[in-house]
Amino acid sequence: MSIRVQGASVRHGQVQALSAVDLLIGQGERVAIIGPSGAGKSSLLHLMGTAVPPSDGRLELLGEQPWALSARARQRLRARVGLVHQAPPLPPRQRVVTAVLAGRLGQWGTLRGLLNLIHPGDVPGARAALAELGMADKLFAQCGQLSGGQLQRVGIARALYQRPEVLLTDEPVSAMDPVLADHSLALLNRHAQAHGVTLVASLHAVELALAYFPRIVGIRAGQVAFDCPAAAVSEAMLDALYANEQLASPVAATASLQVQIPRC
Amino acid sequence: MRRVINGLVIVAILAAVLASFAYLELDLAAVVGSGGPAQMGEYAARFLHPDLSVAHLRAVGQGALETLAMSGMGTLLAMLLGLLLALPAAGRFGWPLQGAARLLLNALRAIPELVWAALTVLAAGLGPNAGTLALALHTAGVLGRLFAEALENAPPEPAAAIRLQGGSQVAAFCFGTLPNLWPQLLAYSLYRWENNIRMASVLGFVGAGGLGQMLYATLSLFQEAQASTVIIAMLLLVLLVDALSDVLRQRFVRA
Amino acid sequence: MLSTDQRDPAAIPRVLLTLLCLALLWPGLHLSELDPGVLLQAENRQQMAGFVSAFWPPAHDAGFLDLLFTATVQTLAVATAGMTLALLLAVPASLLASRALSLRAASNGGRLEPLSRAARLPVRGVLIFLRSVPEIVWALLFVRAVGLGPTAGVLAIAITYSGMLGKVYAEIFESVDQRPAHALLQAGSSRLSAFLYGTLPEAASEVVSYTVYRWECAVRASVVMGFVGAGGLGQQIDLSMRMFAGAEVVSMLLTFLLLVVLADLLSRFLRGRLA
């Protein structure tokens, strides 16, 4: 069993993001998580990626309980789990090649990591990861010069380069045009199938989820609404899932370089 | 009401200005009036013929290089020291260390360079070493505080993402925080360097080496021609560093 | 193909930059005779320890406090008087140096011709000269010219700060909207009235704020200038230091800190009020 979530709740301050969620995901399974905005898709992924501890219940990841481990052992476990963020948090002044190579910092020792900062050691590896996403020409560009969709592809390339056993992706294609989104999702699925990687993706677009993933989990108001094979998802289930959805899209703020120099 | 208070503030400022002049009993009349300008002019005229003999120019060149080295090394040392202190001062290692580091930074910053120089001359003897250390100590306080602020304001997400995929603290700092931070650190350091070249050329007044020591000596011996050369060298040095720092800023900070 | 594929385009510049830095570091270390270890040598440590151990308690007998008060007031007076004189020099200089009041530009759609630029160069050059020589050097020169005491400090601040203020004022005048002043100039008003009616209303708050801010800097500067004999706290610190009177040095440093903090507060208050 790859991921085992048992009665897990997540609370952000006063807001109950997830309440008593049960979910079992087996080795090599490919699962899409769908649901309206604010339903808790991101919270569930962040929970599974050990970004937040469950306020209640338990989480088992690759046969271990991350929050019962020592900090060092948890870092080792985290190196085996990849998380693609919706807006990849990449420093604007970092070069794409470095950002991709940073994917393997968990596997590398600190010294090797620092050396890669000065001189990228595995340019072909980073290029190969980017080339699959059609981004090889941006290898030496700065992250700050890329568009949102390009940044998302760099984030995916970084996770692929990490070669995790569990790949969690949070809205990985939300800023891409339909053709690119198709291509990127197909690539993720191919990669997962070829390497036996467990793939979990939260998706806004239901048709993409149904087209690419054999198993669909619907989330509404912090709880699992349904969990069934893609073929079994009916129009009625979707209507119930998205009833009264409010139109709201999170805006990612970009930080710009500000240097305030005192004059005295 | 606001107008009344503003009026009172302006009256108070004017009163303070008048009181200052009265308190100092400035005899500006003597400076500007009879005999004063002639005397000043005569004094100034002695600076109009800088000593351009080869021997003196060589000595001044040596002093200028020494001053440049003092300012550069002092700033470099201060960058290292400042970064070392900025990490705890930004709260990376818990609050007890944060308080201690902040106190130390404020103490370093509060004491002017010239006082530090007087102290280091006492401890390390005359010469540029004392000046370099004095610059480094004061500048470490200034840069440490600026670095700490920059660290606190740096977005935490990139580093958190690296931690989440198993990277160590050091790796997360170097890959997640530093890429955005270093242009800012460099900008602060360059600004301090511009400041330090001015200070380095005057620290010699208390015996800490460089052009200042030459200027002090030549003026004490009433060698205005030689002093004039030293002042010109200072001016060139300041303009050179300003230009150099501007080039580096254009190249690395605004890129 | 593969070799170009693997090459990092930034590698060569990085190597060269590193080599350049190393090449500069060596003479730098040599020239500055940098050796922090000196501070830790037993003999020097003892000397420092002796000096520092005299720090506590700070000197606080009545005679010394009286001296301290006089020196502090003198420092403040030097800063204020110096700023006033600097202002008197800086305002006309900034009007001469600023491109905002060019008649030619006003009748030329705001474009500045090389001639109008050149006409303003001498004033700009003088301003650069005035502020590029550190204030403490001016103080040293004036001490030689007018003797020890606060007069030298006042003159030094007046000279250096007129350079700084003049440059910044000129830039502020140029940065505000030029159209009101140009309209007035085109309507036949004199330059001064065009400035007063067209430029100053917009620039005033920034000018005031910068001036008050500079006053705060002048307070610090006047303390430092005392070290070459220009009166005030600095001169007393220098004297006490030469006499190894640690207790007095500490009292005066504390006073200096207090002064800086108070000046900062006052400057913030004034900027909030006037700007």
From TrEMBL, chain A:
GO terms for molecular function: ATP binding; ATP hydrolysis activity. It is found in: Cell inner membrane. Its main location: membrane. GO terms for cellular component: plasma membrane. Residues 3-246 form the ABC transporter domain. Pfam families: ABC_tran (PF00005). The keyword Transport applies. This is ATP-binding cassette domain-containing protein. PANTHER family: AMINO ACID IMPORT ATP-BINDING PROTEIN, PHOSPHONATES IMPORT ATP-BINDING PROTEIN PHNC. InterPro entries: AAA+_ATPase, ABC_transporter-like_ATP-bd, ABC_transporter-like_CS, MetN_ABC_transporter-like, P-loop_NTPase.
Automatic annotation (TrEMBL), chain B:
The chain crosses the membrane at residues 68-91, 199-219, 225-244. Residues 64-245 form the ABC transmembrane type-1 domain. It holds the Pfam family BPD_transp_1. GO terms for molecular function: ABC-type phosphonate transporter activity. It is a multi-pass membrane protein. GO terms for cellular component: plasma membrane. Coiled coil: none annotated. InterPro entries: MetI-like, MetI-like_sf, PhnE/PtxC. It is found in: Cell membrane. It comes from the Bacteria. Its main location: membrane. Keywords: Cell membrane, Membrane, Transmembrane, Transmembrane helix, Transport. Belongs to the binding-protein-dependent transport system permease family. NCBIfam families: PhnE (TIGR01097). This is Phosphonate ABC transporter, permease protein PhnE. It comes from Pseudomonas peradeniyensis. The gene is phnE.
Automatic annotation (TrEMBL), chain C:
It is found in: Cell membrane. It holds the Pfam family BPD_transp_1. It is a multi-pass membrane protein. InterPro entries: MetI-like (IPR000515), MetI-like_sf (IPR035906). It comes from the Bacteria. CDD domains: TM_PBP2. This is ABC transporter permease subunit. It comes from Pseudomonas peradeniyensis.
